[in-house]
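Hey, I was hoping to borrow your eyes for a little while. I'm sending you its amino acid sequence along with the backbone structure tokens. Take your time with it, there's no hurry, and the full record follows here.
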Amino acid sequence: MAEKEIIYTEKAPEPGNYSQAIKYGNLLFLSGQTPDDVETHKPVYGTIAEQTELVLTHIKNVLEAAGSGLDKVLKCNVYISDMKHKKEMDKVYKKFFSENPPARICMAVKGLDAGLDVEIDVIAIAD
């Protein structure tokens, strides 16, 4: 039986009362990442493109800490503050998932953490 392994990297925001990711068997479950500065531990506000770039960079870093990568992502859940941001978010998203993109949902939600505009979590294959 597989055991649960906690994944952690200093290249992503410090987790609160959760883990950055959990590895179980050959799967990785990444917690939602927000655009927080890894040095100041404060939210980074800016355009949805800037926030998305930072969030996906955090995801890439957590995946790499687990020995995986963006090409191993199976599913993305994208939460944005307003659907008017979807087109701009997608431009950045496509830079990270340019070929064979994962399954995805993108939904507008009310009240993202710290008044930010995007949060993304993923499920990926662990090597």
User: Anything to note?
Assistant: The chain has a mean pLDDT of 97. The domain at 4-120 is CATH 3.30.1330.40 (60s Ribosomal Protein L30; Chain: A;).
